[in-house]
UniProtKB/TrEMBL annotation:
<keyword id="KW-1188">Viral release from host cell</keyword>
<dbReference type="InterPro" id="IPR006433">
    <property type="entry name" value="Prohead_protease"/>
</dbReference>
<protein>
    <recommendedName>
        <fullName>Prohead serine protease domain-containing protein</fullName>
    </recommendedName>
</protein>
<keyword id="KW-0378">Hydrolase</keyword>
<dbReference type="Pfam" id="PF04586">
    <property type="entry name" value="Peptidase_S78"/>
</dbReference>
<feature type="domain" description="Prohead serine protease">
    <location>
        <begin position="15"/>
        <end position="166"/>
    </location>
</feature>
<keyword id="KW-0645">Protease</keyword>
<dbReference type="InterPro" id="IPR054613">
    <property type="entry name" value="Peptidase_S78_dom"/>
</dbReference>
């Protein structure tokens, strides 16, 4: 049976131009709403198997029709290009696809607005130990199937942490125009060396910081 665990992410830094975001699909050592705790190293074998296949688990929306019959289809909504364990948990970074379409823009808007701010893993437990007290199980080895964007994760720590947006780069053209107008007005009152040329150098330098 495929199980699911969710983690919240913060939609504060999403790239509106590329759709790139990152976050944690799972957090180690944290008691989730299912009374389970995922142990460090639980994904190691599964990630090695995925790498041997030359790909990573799919990026889905609400686990596709298995998680929500109203999603309409089981097509992936993007691709993951990084997936690894670190000291905190299962770190993932990926990119939404088709963000130039109405459907893609809607998903991106929901993420940036905080309505779609969770990551959820679909998995099967391969090895676990019984817990004590409020802990039902210690999950020691997990067979990872997919990672979904969700709206209500079971683990508040597993949220998208960054949806990288370069607001500075996006507003560069507008800033450039305003600076150009200001320099031209100043040049009327005093002799200024080629305001357009000087401004071009400044704009090129500023743009280099956003790459």
């Amino acid at each position: 049976m495929t199980e699911r665990r969710d983690v919240k992410f913060a939609p504060s830094d999403i790239n509106s131009q590329t759709g790139v975001f990152s976050g944690y699909g799972a957090v180690f050592g944290n008691l989730d709403s299912h009374a389970d705790i995922i142990m460090h190293g639980a994904f190691k074998a599964s990630l090695a198997e995925w790498r041997a296949r030359g790909r990573l688990p799919k990026m889905m929306l609400m686990h596709g029709s298995n998680g929500n019959p109203f999603t309409g289809d089981d097509l992936p909504i993007g691709v993951f290009h990084t997936m690894r364990e670190d000291a905190k948990g299962l770190f993932v970074e990926g990119r939404l696809l088709a963000i130039e379409t109405d459907y893609g823009r809607r998903i991106l808007s929901l993420m940036k607005g905080g309505a779609l701010d969770g990551l959820s893993i679909g998995f099967r437990v391969k090895r676990s130990s019984p817990g004590r007290g409020t802990t039902k199980r210690w999950l020691e080895e997990i067979d990872l199937k997919e990672v979904s964007l969700v709206d209500d994760p079971s683990n508040d720590l597993a949220r998208v942490s960054t949806v990288k947006e370069s607001a500075f780069a996006a507003s560069m053209d507008d800033a450039y125009a305003k600076m150009q107008a200001a320099l031209r007005s100043l040049s009327a009152a005093e002799a200024a060396p080629s305001p357009d040329a000087e401004l071009g150098k400044l704009a090129a330098q500023l743009r280099s910081y956003t790459r």
